[in-house]
Design brief:
The structure is a single chain. The chain has a single domain, classed as NAD(P)-binding Rossmann-like Domain (Rossmann fold). It is globular, with a radius of gyration of 19 Å. 32% of the residues lie in helices and 22% in strands. The chain contains eight helices and 15 strands. It is an alpha/beta fold. The two termini are 27 Å apart. It comes from Syntrophotalea carbinolica (strain DSM 2380 / NBRC 103641 / GraBd1) (Pelobacter carbinolicus). Belongs to the NAD(P)-dependent epimerase/dehydratase family. This is NAD-dependent nucleoside diphosphate-sugar epimerase/dehydratase.
């Protein structure tokens, strides 16, 4: 399969490209920075295009013939409250994806976000209404709705992969575990954090990449799916387990930072649909 991957050098993209190649797919990797791409271990094994997909003059012919598109790119993170997500990224993303679809793409995987659910607590499933509470969540939710409306004119299969939390090599240095690793590497004896009582849903990035590749390999799947573990874990437990794994005696200064005001205290994904899809059960379509 020929697969176009946007955001190929990003945190999730770099692992997804690796997994696609391992499974024998041909990859057109798209990113803005060619220098960064050349640092990737897979650079010599892909067809790389240095391109800003948000430019209005981006031509789908630039990427050659593709069987599927995995749209993983989204700039401006982790500033979830920036209006840029709504005012610039959303219309540019839709314009790019519409061009790809009108050029003949029928198999599309797009990464959404658990932030589409907004401030709802508890286990979140794909049939729940969305109430995004941040510009980022609103922009992603709106993009999904735009694409669903586009399908009334240009039919295509779309897997909307609603990502929960992930961690691993290449993550943003400002993220929790990246900061913790930096503190451990420096030999810090204390780590400042929030109260840590939040319940979240985490997946290692390698597992998330595996799932995304399985989605693109199954063109018949269609709809929204939570990419999650289905298991709530407290932030404090995550941090403590990571410290123990590193065989460190570091102490936690819990409560140093306030809890984020854009996330509920306890939420995790219902992974029922994901398990159905990955085990080859009858595809479950969602609105």
């Amino acid at each position: 399969m020929n697969v176009l991957v946007t955001g190929a050098t990003g945190f999730i993209g770099r692992h997804t490209v690796t997994r696609l190649l391992q499974k024998g797919h041909r990859v057109t990797a798209v990113a803005r920075d060619a220098t960064r791409a050349m640092e990737m271990p897979w650079f010599d094994r892909v067809h790389f295009k240095a391109c800003d997909i948000h430019r209005p003059d981006t031509d789908p012919d630039l990427f050659g013939i593709q069987d599927a598109v995995m749209h993983l790119a989204w700039p401006g993170l982790p500033d979830y409250k920036s209006l840029v997500h709504m005012e610039e990224t959303l219309p540019a993303d839709y314009r790019f994806l519409k061009k790809m679809i009108c050029s003949g793409i029928k198999n599309l995987v797009v990464t959404g976000t658990c932030f589409e659910y907004g401030m709802q607590n508890g286990m979140l499933d794909e049939n729940m209404p969305t109430f995004p509470a941040t510009p980022y969540g609103l922009a992603k939710d709106s993009l999904r709705k735009f694409l669903q409306m586009l399908r009334t004119r240009h039919p295509f299969a779309m897997k909307w992969a609603r990502l929960f939390y992930t961690y691993g090599e290449g993550q943003n240095p400002g993220s929790l575990l990246a900061q913790l690793n930096s503190a451990l590497n420096r030999g810090d004896t204390v780590f400042n954090m929030s109260g840590g009582e939040q319940l979240r849903d985490y997946l290692p990035v390698e597992r998330m990449a595996d799932i995304l590749v399985e989605l693109v390999e199954n063109p018949g799947l269609d709809g929204i799916v939570n990419i999650c573990s289905g298991q709530p874990v407290s932030v404090r437990r995550l941090v403590e387990d990571h410290i123990a794994h590193r065989d460190s005696r570091m102490k936690l200064n819990a409560g140093y930072y306030p809890y984020p005001d854009y996330e509920p205290m306890a939420f995790w994904g219902d992974d029922t649909r994901l398990r159905q899809w990955l085990t080859g059960c009858e595809p479950v379509k969602s609105a």
